[in-house]
Amino acid sequence: MALPSTYADSNCSLARALEVVGERWTLLIVRDAFYGVRRFGDFATQLGIPRAVLTSRLKLLVREGVLTRDESAGAVEYVLTDKGVALWPIVRSLITWGDEFYSPAGVRRAMRHDADGAPLDPDGRCTECGTIVAVPDIRMEPGPGYEPTGKELDPVSAAINTPRRLLDPITTTPSRS
């Protein structure tokens, strides 16, 4: 018996959530949206994702209300909605899990409370003031497990790998050939 290709009729909230974010590349797109990536070409460059796959995933995320497609900036940008921002605890938990089990040198990207510079614990709580830090108030920066590639970084990668607040848009100027 073949496995079903979707879980749409399943009476399980996890299965329904996986219909939206469970396909390959989708959570990486969401992660990069938290990091400030907004433009199609920047997602494609940063992730190395096939353009047809990126198109499909962005359409799904917009249709499901995780991202909005904004054309008011003179270029099309994809911005996390409140529903998308609500995915942060899941994304943060997966990053923490990956750092714990697959980054022996330490966290690759450290998350800090922008207000006081203190690190966040795995639950997103500031280790200095004790508050759960809202996504726009989180600053990320390269951690001890960050491994530079040794090659010149594209503008999106360079921005992601410098201290910056989550959700702050990364803007790149398209090259003209």
Main sheet overview? 3 strands, antiparallel
Overall shape: it is globular
Structural class: alpha+beta
* String of helices and strands: HHHHEEHHEEHE
Q: What is the helical fraction, as a range of percent? A: 25-40%
Point out poorly predicted stretches.
none
The averaged pLDDT comes out at 91
Rg measurement, Å: 17 Å
N/C terminus separation: 52 Å
Strand order within the widest sheet?
3-4-5
Counting DSSP H or I runs of 4 or more residues, the number of helices is 7
Number of strands: 5
Q: Bin the strand percentage.
A: 5-15%
Please render the helix and strand layout as text.
Elements: H1 13-21, H2 26-34, H3 40-47, H4 51-63, E1 67-70, E2 77-80, H5 82-85, H6 88-102, E3 109-113, E4 138-142, H7 155-160, E5 164-165
Q: Overview of this structure, please?
A:
There is one protein chain. This protein has 177 residues and is an alpha+beta fold. It is built from seven helices and five strands; from the N terminus they run ααααββααββαβ. A hairpin with a 6-residue loop joins strand 1 and strand 2 (77-80).
